[in-house]
Design a protein that fits this description.
Low-confidence stretches: none
Shape: flat
CATH class of the largest domain: Alpha Beta
Distance between the termini: 86 Å
Strand content: 15-25%
CATH superfamily of the largest domain: UvrC, RNAse H endonuclease domain
Structural class: alpha+beta
Number of strands: 19
Number of helices: 21
Number of domains: 5
CATH architecture of the largest domain: 2-Layer Sandwich
Mean pLDDT: 83
Largest sheet: 8 strands, mixed
CATH topology of the largest domain: Nucleotidyltransferase, domain 5
Length: 575
């Protein structure tokens, strides 16, 4: 059967060389469909052809191609390198590759007279000492802000020379080297302590800081001693928040392949500093592509002393050679994951077996379990601060990067239906631009909320399913009139209540954040000496009234707020 359909391919396979190299499937428009490498090109193409009967992906590759080309190389290693470069350059449809087009964020302490801290996604592009990568990306930004607060490395770039310090100096984010507010020696000591801190040598940092306190105290420099004391407190807080410490690996990247997913766990200074699922352009990971994932990841990222995998992989020797020749890095690769990491993975990486859920879903609803489901909820306080939330479930896990929140703009009174219609309309319009829009939408509520979802869907002409879920009774209402009592099906109960509860939590969190911001600003309106500028400074720095109450007069003075006004704030808030 397949011989007749793909007769054109047999002619190419018969002419293919029995030598190492790269082979390329292309379509009629000369676009790359698939790229592979082999020790023997002819034998590998024959193997592709034999898998047509059992592998749907192979059928797609052949059906979308019209020609097979090849490039002969001197060795298997050369074929390995060429395949990697061609896939990265031409991005064939059916090759597994990482979604991230650039490296993951790293922090760089620059090599300058007065070093600063920067974020880079390409190892080596900035001259300096690199730390990380930090996963998820927001961790790098948060850590950068923490460094400025703790060690006050300059925020301006390039370093200017001036007589008056900038606003960040008054906020305590910079030590003011531009205006000679700190000596070069003291500044570079802070930069060295920052490096130790980022390297994971936290104990050494704390010891150094305690030594500083003693020196400043002996010289009666009590303000500087207090600043160092605050640094120690902040560092100890960071230590307490670390998820796992004391790991028997000082510096390593752990790649954990499980099911159709790939996870990366980054260890620096015997501590986990990041964990993330590596997103792929294809929907799921395919066994046999482990090494390509590694080479893709290390194109721009820092290469650690050790790489740990949870299973043996093909082409490992080619990968070692690639690291040595192209990256000038000799790396130890092992397959023994420490028990502390195994325990961490079991607690933090939840990969459910979807087979049972898929079976229950299809049996109940008559269509396959979607790879992506979005869930919506509305939250308000007596008609004020009305917000909407959208959370995303993808292939068994909640994808927090895809969450969205909405401030309702068109509804001025209590009207959940109108608020829901606005949020759904704004979100549904985005589906026309998405590469992978959801096939199913879930709404927190009963039949009334379901009708709003159906109305918006039909008005926009979308081809999606819409369900709603009622609290307490846990009844699921579908757009084709079914009422499913979820207590009778544990798989479906877990899926839909998880989505509903997460959407509710996300909506309430946003509603509370808006209320706190507005409350803080409205309360500050009643204090003499607090204008718009000072109000914004206080909100940006402290976020809540409770934090302002805890701030010392000296702290507020550094922000440009006079002692008299600071005392007025405390008196007003206390009363």
């Amino acid at each position: 059967m397949y011989e007749k359909i793909f007769y054109w391919a047999l002619e190419y396979i018969q002419r293919a060389p029995e030598e190492p190299g790269v082979y390329i499937f292309k379509n009629e428009k000369n676009h790359y469909v698939y790229i592979g490498k082999a020790v023997n090109i002819k034998n590998r193409l024959k193997n592709h052809f034999q898998q047509l009967k059992t592998d749907p992906k192979e059928r797609k590759i052949f059906s979308e191609s019209s020609v097979i080309q090849w490039i002969i190389t001197k060795s298997d290693y050369e074929a390995f390198v060429l395949e990697s470069e061609l896939i990265k350059q031409y991005k064939p449809k059916y090759n597994v590759r990482l979604k991230s087009g650039s490296g993951y964020p790293m922090l760089v302490i620059t090599d300058e007279e007065y070093p600063t801290i920067k974020i880079s996604r390409k190892y080596g592009e900035i001259k300096g000492s690199y730390f990380g990568p930090f996963l998820p990306a927001k961790t790098a930004r948060a850590m950068k802000e923490l460094i400025h607060k703790l060690f006050k490395l300059r925020t301006c770039d390039p370093l200017p020379k001036r007589n008056i310090v900038c606003f960040d100096y008054h906020l305590g984010l910079c030590s003011g080297p531009c205006a000679d507010k700190i000596s070069k020696r003291d500044y570079n000591e802070d930069a060295q302590v920052t490096k130790s801190f980022l390297s994971g040598n936290v104990k050494n940092v704390v010891y150094q800081l305690y030594d500083k306190i003693n020196i400043y105290t002996q010289k009666l420099m009590f303000e500087k001693a207090a600043t160092v004391r605050d640094q120690i407190k902040a560092i100890e807080t960071v230590i307490r928040k670390q998820e796992v410490m004391g790991i028997p690996l000082e510096e390593a990247d752990i790649f954990y392949f499980i099911g159709k997913k790939v996870y990366l766990i980054v260890i620096r200074g015997h501590t986990i500093i990041g964990k993330e699922e590596l997103k792929l352009h294809s929907e799921e990971f395919e066994e046999g592509n482990e090494v390509f994932i590694l080479t893709s990841y290390y194109t721009d990222n820092y290469i650690p002393e050790k790489i740990v995998l949870n299973k043996p992989v093909e082409d490992l020797e080619n990968f070692r050679q690639w690291l040595l020749k192209s990256k000038n890095k000799e790396v130890e690769i092992e397959f023994n994951i420490p028990q502390t990491i195994e325990n961490f993975i079991k607690r933090n990486i939840k990969v459910d077996d979807l087979d049972s859920l898929k079976e229950s879903f299809e049996k109940t609803f008559g269509f396959s379990l979607p790879s992506r489901i979005e869930c919506f909820d509305i939250s308000h306080l007596q008609g004020s601060f009305t917000v909407g939330s959208c959370v995303v479930w993808e292939n068994g896990v909640m994808n927090k990067k895809e969450y969205r929140r909405f401030k309702v703009k068109s509804v001025g009174q209590i009207d959940d239906y109108a608020s829901l219609r606005e949020v759904l309309t704004r979100r549904f319009k985005k589906y026309f631009e998405m590469e992978n829009p959801p096939e199913l939408v879930l709404i927190d509520g009963g039949k009334g909320q379901l009708s709003q979802g159906i109305e918006v869907r039909n008005k926009l002409g979308l081809n999606i399913r819409v369900f709603s879920i009622a609290k307490k009774e846990e009844i699921l209402y579908t757009d084709d009139g079914k009422e499913i009592r979820l207590f009778e099906n544990q798989d479906l109960l877990k899926l839909f209540t998880q989505l509903r509860d997460e959407a509710h939590r996300f909506a309430i969190t946003y509603n509370r954040k808006l209320r706190e911001k507005e409350t803080l600003k409205s309360v500050l309106d009643g204090i003499e000496g607090i204008g718009e500028k000072r109000k914004e400074i206080l909100y940006r720095t402290y976020k809540t009234l409770d934090n302002i109450l805890k701030a010392s007069d000296d702290e507020l003075k550094k922000l440009g707020i006079p002692i008299s006004v600071a005392q007025r704030i405390k008196s007003y808030l206390t009363s």
